[in-house]
Design goal:
The strands form two sheets. Strands 1, 2, 3, 4, 5, 6, 7, 8, 10, 14, 17, 20, 21 and 22 form a 14-stranded mixed beta sheet that branches. The protein has a nine-stranded antiparallel beta sheet with strand order 9-11-12-13-23-19-18-15-16. With 562 residues, it is α+β, with helices and mostly antiparallel strands. The radius of gyration is 30 Å and the shape is elongated. The chain has two domains: 217 residues, no CATH class; 308 residues, Distorted Sandwich (Beta-galactosidase, Chain A, domain 5), CATH 2.70.98.90.
Length: 562
């Protein structure tokens, strides 16, 4: 009975841990950026080589080079809008704005907003009046003897569109959309977006043609700017991280939350890294050439809250008089497909955020994917098979646990006699119990230690099922057509509650009447709690509980008695 209470306590603790973990991520103060990352409010004005950002309109104010200029506070819209350039490929429906040549609208054609709206693609990037998520790039000028200093295009510059609509033809694998801008001196800047069939990776190129008699010298920056996700669009009853992420070979994967960005501007020199904004299932990331030194930066603007994360080239780009050069970077905008992300940049697959249990979660994910790709071709059945494999892997531990429980159950009358003998003297009662356990060669923790060993695996599997975009709108059977949303008829949560109730009935009820009532309430509490969980997670719990019932019956009725 003591073991039963302990096991149920562990189960409750597991769910409470998941709730606490989500609450901590959502509401607790976020740690400040590590000491290795320099935080500064502005770039030193005494630097003789500091860049001189240039804007087109007199009303716009220049800022420090690490934080390219934003719209004036008086601007009613989050960003200015100009002519739209429409691009459609097999995976994208995109709008590029001539203001800054920004990537403003990104619809993911293969990822509908919901099962009920298969023809409406999910809009990852947008520039609406209240919700913003866009990709920007531009140049800042660098002071240099004999170089042109008057102008360079940034994300407020109005480009000229070469054409207003692009369509990827069936017989083509690539498509390039182009905007241009010419400085007063005649330097031509060509910004291009190159799309590849079947790919969410975009090549963003900048070609500079310098027909003048002076060199052009400047630095390229690229950034992601967004507002927080509106409450109505957030997943219900689960927490997933939305915010900035940077990666460097030295510090690896590091989150920079919105609260971190509000606390101070980041300025960090990195070679071989990337910056990104991530959310549940999707991300956008700037990936520079691996050998290009960059300065990663962040900035924040209130009313409404806008957060920017980006990078600026440390080495100046020089285009000789009469010369021409092209510079390019990669921009990934799309779903968190781990296999794809691994091929783009080191550590980019970590944006599939499994937290501290990544070391366990990644192997679990690959086994789950292998089962889906090679055995069943259905994510629901793949979850069931994976749960069975995990259950079989821990069979010996479970057998040991149930043997310990059986031994403890035999001692229950003698333990009750000790309670009657020593009454409220807890110290003597504890000493007498330990002496009884020693004499009978029973480890009182033998029933719970195997369960404690399994808990990290179960939590890791929880995060795999929660974070894997493959489960988004993936059907199972009958009415379960989207395993990333709750069961619309609450059948799975009810089955989970019933299975938990049966598990309780397989063990004798606690002697303490209060504890017995608490234990009887747990299946109802868990049923209500799981009613709002994604169906894929509840499938796992139902199958796990069912297998536990069969396993317990087999071990206690056949293995132990044989």
């Amino acid at each position: 009975m003591e073991q039963q209470r302990l096991i149920l306590f562990i189960a409750l603790s597991l769910v409470l841990f998941l709730i606490w973990d989500a609450w901590q991520r959502e509401f607790s103060p976020q740690p400040v950026t590590p000491p290795a990352t320099e935080i500064r409010s502005e770039v030193a004005a005494t630097d003789s080589n500091a860049e001189v950002p240039v804007v087109d309109a007199p009303a716009q104010q220049s800022e420090t080079p690490s934080t390219p200029s934003f719209m004036p506070v008086t601007e009613m819209k989050l960003v200015k809008k100009g002519q739209r350039i429409h691009v459609e490929t097999d995976v994208f429906r995109i709008e590029i704005d001539t203001v800054g040549g920004d990537l403003r609208i990104v619809d993911l054609k293969k990822y509908p907003v919901s099962v009920d709206k298969p023809d409406q693609p999910f809009r990852l990037m947008k520039d609406g009046p209240e919700s913003l998520f866009i990709a920007q790039s531009g140049f800042t000028l660098r002071k240099s003897d004999g170089a042109i200093l008057s102008a360079a295009p940034n994300h407020t510059t109005v480009y000229q569109a070469v054409q207003s609509k692009y369509q990827l033809d069936q017989d083509k694998n690539k498509l390039t959309a182009i905007v241009t801008w010419t400085s007063p001196e005649g330097v031509v800047f060509i910004k291009s977006y190159t799309f590849t069939r079947g790919s969410y990776l975009i090549e963003v190129g900048h070609t500079i043609k310098n027909p003048t008699r002076k060199d052009w010298v400047g630095n390229l920056y690229q950034q992601l700017q967004r507002t927080p996700i509106p409450e109505a669009e957030k997943p219900r009853f689960i927490y997933t991280y939305t915010g900035g992420v940077v990666y460097s070979p030295e510090e690896k994967y590091h989150k920079i939350s919105f609260s971190n960005i509000e606390e101070g501007k980041l300025s960090k020199q990195v070679t071989g890294g990337w910056t990104a904004m991530i959310q549940h299932y999707f991300l956008a990331a700037w990936v520079p050439p691996a050998d290009a030194p960059e300065t990663f930066y962040t900035s924040y603007r209130p009313s409404p809250d806008r957060y920017t994360i980006g990078m600026k080239s440390d080495n100046a780009y020089r285009v000789a008089a009469g010369g021409e050069q092209r510079f390019s970077n990669k921009l990934f905008v799309g779903p968190k497909l781990q296999d794809t992300l691994e091929t783009i940049a080191p550590g980019l697959e970590l944006t599939v955020d499994y937290g501290v249990l990544t070391i366990l979660a990644k192997p679990i994910y690959f086994v789950l994917k292998f089962i889906h790709n090679n055995i069943v071709s259905n994510w629901g059945w793949a979850i069931i098979i994976l749960t069975l494999i995990i259950k079989l892997s821990f069979y010996k531990l479970s057998e040991k646990s149930y043997r310990s429980m059986a031994q403890m159950r035999k001692l229950t009358p003698r333990i009750q006699q000790l309670k009657e003998r020593y009454g409220d003297d807890r110290q003597k009662m504890g000493q007498a119990q330990m002496e009884l356990f020693r004499k009978e060669k029973i480890n009182p923790l033998g029933g719970c230690l195997p369960i404690l060993v399994q808990m990290p695996v179960f939590i890791a599997l929880y995060w795999v099922l929660l974070e894997s975009v493959e489960l988004r709108q993936a059907p199972w059977i009958l009415w379960i057509q989207d395993m990333s949303t709750a069961d619309p008829y609450f059948v799975l949560p009810l089955l989970m509650g019933i299975s938990m109730f049966i598990q309780q009935r397989l063990n004798p009820a606690p002697v303490d009447p209060i504890q017995a009532k608490v234990m009887m309430m747990l299946p109802f509490v868990f049923t209500i709690f799981f009613a709002f969980f994604p169906a894929g997670l509840v499938i796992y719990w139902v199958v796990n509980n069912t297998l536990s019932i069969i396993q317990q019956w087999y071990i206690t009725r056949i293995v132990i008695k044989s």
